[in-house]
Design a protein that fits this description.
cell cycle; Uridine Diphospho-n-acetylenolpyruvylglucosamine Reductase, domain 3; four-stranded mixed beta sheet; about 25% strand; peptidoglycan synthesis; FAD; Uridine Diphospho-n-acetylenolpyruvylglucosamine Reductase, domain 1; Uridine Diphospho-n-acetylenolpyruvylglucosamine Reductase, domain 2; 3 domains; cell division; alpha+beta; 7 helices
Length: about 350
């Protein structure tokens, strides 16, 4: 099947911020042969080839001078199992929350705390998605890659993906030792436990007399919490958390805690580092609910920037810069955006 290419494609309905955006070329690809065709076309025209999932962690400029592709296969396959665990191979086009639902219905442990995260499975390793004390890195065994430059399809073991907080090799350009640019995620392999313990590392997960006892119950609890705290992007366009929770040295954290006893601090794997709640920093600057033209800071959650409609992406970037400036001025902490920006 040959590639069906669309020129000057409308991307507005394909990303959750819903700003007007066009791509020079766009195609939905069904296999690596079509992906190779798209890569060759991009090379001929001297433009990048960008993979697009659900656009739920993405900021688009008004014109994307690139070839944008969506990987469409979305199957879930059982590839191995024992009495203790099951291993699944999942296509990159699968909706992430569909995979979570599939796993908790089977009473398998591992994905329940990652319920209600928007996007596709292919985006999970790029960002090393995480929530409520769990990261994608805790379940992944390998990532299947198509190297369009070499025309090779291969599996990359999890240990070679360099997963860290909201980071992986897939976010780093090839010239810097990463995998971004000519390699594309087509599937992942994950391992889930058949017997396990629920992760209650966030206190609000265990509150009340009806604390979750199964993966399905935990997923339902997290869906309810997220629905109460986060605006629905289908109603009020957003990309969820706009800034990463900054990691600072323990000495700086202690200094801030002396000045602000209520500051939320969280342990990290590095004993001399501490994670700070970015939402608290923004809210303490008085920016929660702040509106600037067609964009603003959500009144529900200070970490979420929203688009009220009919705006332009530059308005959002300006607002993000203002927030970064005020947080740095007040706390000497630099906030880093979480979504990827395809502009310059």
């Amino acid at each position: 099947m040959s590639l069906v290419l669309e020129q000057n494609a409308n991307l507005q309905p394909l990303h959750t911020l819903a700003f007007a955006a066009q791509a020079r070329y766009f195609a939905r690809v069904q296999n690596v042969q079509q992906l190779a065709q798209a890569y060759q076309k991009a090379q001929t025209d001297k433009i990048p080839l960008y993979p697009l999932g659900h656009g739920s962690n993405l900021i688009l400029p008004e014109f994307v001078n690139a070839f944008v592709v969506q990987w469409m296969p979305k199957h879930i396959r059982c590839c191995a199992q024992t009495s203790d665990y099951v291993e699944l191979e999942v296509d990159a086009g699968c909706v992430w929350d569909d995979l979570v639902n599939f796993s908790v219905q089977k009473t398998w442990y591992g994905l329940e705390n990652l319920a209600a995260i928007p996007g596709t499975v292919g985006a999970a390793p790029v960002q090393n998605i995480g929530a409520y004390g769990v990261e994608f890195a805790s379940v992944v065994q390998g990532v299947q890659i198509f190297d369009a430059q070499k025309g090779e399809l291969f599996w990359l073991e999890a240990s070679a993906c360099e997963f860290a907080y909201r980071h992986s090799r897939f976010k780093v350009a090839a010239v810097q030792g990463g995998l971004r640019g000519h390699t594309f995620i087509v599937a992942v392999r994950i391992r889930l436990a058949k017997q396990g313990q629920l992760n209650f590392s966030y206190a609000d997960l265990a509150q009340g007399p009806d604390a979750p006892k199964t993966p399905a119950q935990m997923a339902a609890r997290i869906r309810a919490i997220r629905a109460a705290k986060l605006p629905d992007p289908k109603i009020l366009p957003n990309v969820g958390s706009f800034f990463q929770n900054p990691v600072i040295c323990r000495a700086q954290a202690q200094s801030l805690q002396a000045q602000y006893p209520q500051i939320p601090l969280y342990a990290t794997p590095e004993p001399d580092k501490v994670k700070v709640a970015a939402a608290w920093l923004i809210e303490t600057c008085g920016l929660k609910g702040w509106r600037q033209g067609h964009v603003g800071v959500s009144p529900q959650q200070a970490l979420v920037l929203v688009h009220y409609g009919h705006g332009r992406v530059q308005e959002l970037l300006t607002l993000a810069g203002l927030i970064q400036q005020q947080v740095k001025q007040k706390f000497a902490i630099e906030l880093q955006p979480e979504p990827e920006y395809w502009g310059t």
